[in-house]
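[job 4417] fold queue: 2 targets
>>> target A
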Amino acid sequence: MAGNRGVVYMGPGQVEVQSIDYPKLALGDRRCDHGVILKVVSTNICGSDQHMVRGRTTAPAGLVLGHEITGEVIEALSKGQRITVIE
């Protein structure tokens, strides 16, 4: 596996593909039993991501973009189940 990477907002007009940590099913010290970890099959950016990149919002540097995804469940629910995330 090539590792976990994401498109990271660095500031107006600047994004970078960076290595990012793999997620965990936890909220601080507590396990997140209602959460799901997905292997991303396809992703896209939406208008809110474009507004951030163009400097029209107060998005913090370091924010990982691309919340519209289709993925395969690798932890929780039924492994292999495919879902689409709509935020």
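>>> target B
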Amino acid sequence: SLLQENYNAFVTFPHQRLTRMNPMMPFRRSLLATCAVSALAATTSVAFAQQAREVKVGYALAVNSHYGAGAQAWADHVEKATGNAFKFKQFPSSALGGERELIEGLQLGTVEAILVSTGALSNFVPEIGVVDIPFLFRDTAHARKVLDGDFGQDLLTKFKKRGLIALAWGEQGFRHLSNNKHPVNKPEDLKGLKIRTMENPVHILAFRTMGASPTPMAWPEVIGALQQGTIDGQENPLSVFVSAKLWQVQKNLTLTGHVYAPIALVVSPAFFGSLTDAQKTAFIEGAKIGAQASRKFVDDVEKKGVDEIKSHGVNVVTQVNNAPFQAALTPAYKQYAAKYGQKTLDQIAAVK
């Protein structure tokens, strides 16, 4: 700055000569130096004030997935609404660890935001396990209405006592079954198949009840396990199958639609508590916009995903009679009702 240059030039003059020339010089020198330092301090202070605060946001899949779509829409809104007071830095493809590690990172305050499946969350917030019950939702419209309504919004409040702040429900879609052994058309076809499930007791019980060998596994390990034959198959929505290019490691896909899979947009309590009310509003609104972006991504994949998967040589069973699968799950349904309450299940079923 000009003040700095003047100051540097000034202090290089021989002090004694200046003093002899003008007895007031030491005072003026001191005054100018003080002004210069004050100006530099003010400039530095402004620079720091304008620096955006980083928000680390992690998720399991690639950027070009429903997770990525949700994260980007969330980031765009918050950055714009806060005048770029925040800058989102995305960590896709489990760069910060699997979903369990991401959730723990929120609780510890080492991660600010995540998009995560209910499959992993149910180990931290047991109440949300109810939405993972097979064939609980009639269709996508039913599931979205439940989660956007009183029931779903009340579920979001359950996170707080578990050291998490959940802001909105996004979506993955309905889960389907794939494997490398043979097409699955009926429950009997599942017998003995080693199926990767999330670390989710509701899912594990369902597949065990239908005769499969459920193998809980974190997502980062799945592709390698399928390649090596450690597991025979997995179950995920079309959005995941396409984003992860599972056609590279799976031969058969059956559109069972056995479980609806939401995702939650969650922030760290420590981070959220540090925000102003206006900033909190921006994050909440941004999360809702991100949730809608994830749903739009899923809708688009549902329209063209099957054709794309078939084009890569996967045998896809599209016509499935779910009644036998539901009948095979009767013992599991009794346990679900005992755990979550039949009244709760009826409440979800009654939503029109």
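[job 4417] complete. Note on B: The first helix runs from residue 2 to 11.
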